[in-house]
Task: structure prediction
Amino acid sequence: MKSVKLTVSALAVIAASASVAAARDQVQVAGSSTVLPYANIVAEAFAENSGFAAPVVEGGGSSAGLKQFCEGVGENTIDVANASRKIKDSEIETCKANGVANIIEVQFGYDGIVFASDINGPDFALTPKDVFLALAGEVVVDGVVTANAAANWSDVNPDLPAQPIMAFIPGTKHGTREVFEEKVMKAGCEESGALDAFKAANADEKAAEAACIAIRTDGKSVDVDGDYPETLARIESDKNGVGVFGLSFYESNTTKLKVATINGVTPSVETVASAEYPVSRPLFFYVKKDHIGVIPGLKEYAEFFVSDAIAGPGGPLSSYGLVPDPELATVQQTVADEAAMQ
Result:
């Protein structure tokens, strides 16, 4: 990639080198596959523009990254967890139990979740209801809860292609999966009227909501535990496949993928920023405050990540597909102050 040229003021943020001796001299990062490409861009630019070593950035999913993050404090644990969802209360409690009591939450922008298929395939104009009726384990037919028997997309909506249902969705360890469940499956369940039927059948609201997000297990939907390139590879092997991706990944693969509209809205940086596109979410990274001053470059990396030159409009992250956070100045102050979550 091209070198990122920064202003004098931006460089000042990362000018000082760490003087504290440490067992390692690289920031270690793991987590969300959605945040992964952004973090890689930042890591490369950080190494080019500072006196610090390039951070080691790995994927694995939001839940897996936060699990590593919460394992404890010390140079044998990671410093930063990337996440495409907010950290859960249960994860915070696990962190605290393992001595990770001071966590800095950094929301650096927004991304959309998109449905995309082979570039040469038919157009898809989806709604959450369509996706629910295609992928749910159980649906409601004539008021009766029954196993989902839909074989083609046209079975759930005659306006959709007469193409076999084959979906590749993020596995349960990915933050994208939780947003998919909440903003697509649950929303579609409610829209179709199935939620009320599930409540009547289960007499339990939690059980009904669980039924809304339960995915069919007959081979029409496949969990992908790897990152987005694996989902793309699945579609390249099965041209009937429809995959779930982050907006930025899709925008980097428009020669291979055709994106679906949701509720008539085409996903883009503009429609996500305006909240017109219905399936969007904030992106985060979490910093282990107790590692600041111990791991060289940790705070500098975090400040660099959220600087105007990197995460602001016109920066390399927005060029890749990030929707900048309109409250970025507040985020920058949080990092500068090392303000831990309360």
Summary: DSSP finds 16 helices and 14 strands in the chain. The chain has two domains: 8-111+282-337, 112-280.
